[in-house]
Amino acid sequence: MAVMIVLLLLSITLSLSYAVVRSQASASLMQSNSNLDLLARQAAMTGMQTAMRKMSETNWAGVTSSVTGALSGNQSFRVTFQTGDASLSTTGPNASDWSYRVTVVSLGIATDPARPTIASNYTVQAVMKLIPRQLSTNPATFTTALGYTVYQTGTDDFQLELPCRITGAVRVQGNFYLADSYPPSSYGLSRYLSDINAMRGNGYPDDRPLNGPVSIPNSRITGMTKNLLNNSLGVSNISIGSTSATDWSYPSGLTSYQLYPGGQTYSAAIVPSSLANTTLAPDPRTNPLGIFYRSGSLTLGNNVSISGTLVVGGDLVISGSGIALQASSLPALMGSTTPVMLPTIIAAGNVKISSGANVAISGLVATWGALNALQGTQNTALNLQGRVICNGLQFDDRTEWGLSSFLWSLYWSLFNSQSNVPYYPVWLNAFGLWYTPALTVAPETSSVSYLFKDASNKVYVPSSSDPGLAWTVLSWTEIF
User: Fold this and answer.
1) How far apart are CA 427 and CA 237, in angstroms?
2) How far is the C-alpha of 283 from the C-alpha of 430, rounded, in Å?
3) pLDDT tens-digit series, residues 377-400
């Protein structure tokens, strides 16, 4: 009996000893694993700090790169970048932010030196958003042109036939023709322009073809035209020298682009030779600038709405009605509320407005040919609010005004023999010759920061006072 008691006590003692040893081993293992978790987190945090620092340096390799490093023989990290933010939906209020956000994922790894097959992983994820601090530098010609409503870079003709209207400063380099086709000088041209000038102070809107000032080389304007401009219309002109736009060329390779150095490369949307009953707009994930590219000429038919930048390698022919073209607004620079915009139209050839077309354009039109409202009816409408940079500009005859000499003489005689209608334009209006212009070009109604985008420059670049791009942290997540 005594032996059995001793054996029982011995068994209990051994069990207790085993439990104690097992408990100590488990505690030691838990402590070791906890240490590994801490080491993995430390590696992940170090990786994230390294990645964020690189994103703010000029030599950042971009969103397609990765960052790796080691803190010790058993601690390492790997960081990857990806454009976008998984929390954004395609239709949410911040959907357009997608291309300006970068998701940064840092994976930290720690291994147990005593057990190399045992490792702990820790992930830190941050969503960064670009802080726009500075735009790429514009060509000098482009910067100068922004001071004018219409800026002529070449020496093609600059022709304005009635009725039309350009509001604001104009810079002309070609031969300047003002109301050269009608009314004939002998049948009231000077009176027509003097009256259209006088009407604006007597209850009528300002429907003068120009309100100036007009900057032009003296050799490009005749004495008669200068007299009509200065004395009849009350518009001043400034004598300038001819210049050449040596830094100004059509961006032929603008089929892909980046928003910022190191950012994702996007492809412009290729469009066919003609568009009708079509709506085009930027896609924040695939084409955030909304660049629509045609290598040759393009014709726009009825009901075309485009928000973005239309790049045309030939002529742009606008022949339909219900056409609306506007630049898309990009994020303003830090500290400003002024939206950034690319040109609405970039054309290697001419921009032609066909007879009967009806188009509204908001933004800047840059053409290496002419902006040309072709000969057509008075119902042809161009409402352009923005800027025009062109090689030439021609607003051709309205067909209703192509009267015979007999009719011009008759209308002029009848006007002078009556006293009820004091203004010649109002008198002609009664005979179907409208003085209110349907072809108009005027500056924007609010401030815009224009950027000329070519095949190589980015939209946003590091500020001259910063070592690289600036970012803000939108979210931070830790996963273990």
Assistant:
1) 29
2) 49
3) 999 999 999 999 999 999 999 999
Cα radius of gyration (the chain) = 35
Lookup: tokens for 124: 């830190």
Q: What is the pLDDT of residue 26?
A: 45
Residues 6+ apart with CB under 8 A from 219: none
Query: pTM here?
Result: 0.90
Contacts of 12 (CB under 8 A, 6+ apart): none
Token pair listed for 96: 């357009």
Q: Residues 407, 410, 412, 417: what is their CA dihedral angle, to the nearest 10 degrees?
A: -160
CA distances from 350 to 155, 315, 440 (A): 14, 5, 18
148: left (phi over 0), alpha (psi -120 to 50) or beta: beta
The answer to whether the beta carbons of residues 340 and 374 sit under 8 Å apart is no
Query: Which residues, in sequence order, are CB contacts of 259 under 8 Å at separation 6+?
Result: 99, 100, 130, 266, 288, 289, 458, 459, 460
Q: Nearest Cα to 314, choosing from 273, 359, 253, 257?
A: 273
Half-sphere exposure of 28 (CA within 13 A, CB side): 8
Sequential DSSP letters for 77-123: EEEEEEES-TT--SSSTTGGGGGGEEEEEEEEEEEETTEEEEEEEEE
* Contact predicate 192/183, CB 8 Å: yes
- Please, what sign has the CA dihedral across residues 22, 24, 26, 28? negative
- Rounded CA-CA distance 246/261 in Å is 26
CA distance 238 to 219: 12
238 to 109, 173, 213, 217, 218: CA distances (angstroms): 71, 12, 7, 8, 9
DSSP 8-state code for residue 395: E
- In 204-350 the beta strands, taken as DSSP E runs, fall at 214-216, 237-239, 256-258, 265-267, 269-270, 274-275, 278-280, 291-294, 298-300, 304-307, 309-312, 316-318, 323-326, 340-341, 345-347
Q: Which two tokens stand for residue 220?
A: 């490009």
The CB density around residue 231, as the number of other CB atoms within 10 Å, is: 13
End-to-end CA gap in the chain:
57
Nearest to 144 by CA among 124, 166, 173: 173
Q: Tens digit of pLDDT for each residue in 56-101? A: 999 999 999 999 999 999 999 999 999 999 999 999 999 999 999 9
| In contact, 98 and 84? CB cutoff 8 Å | yes
> What are the distances in angstroms from CA 80 to CA 52, 62, 83, 175, 284?
11, 10, 10, 59, 21
Tokens of 457: 């420059």
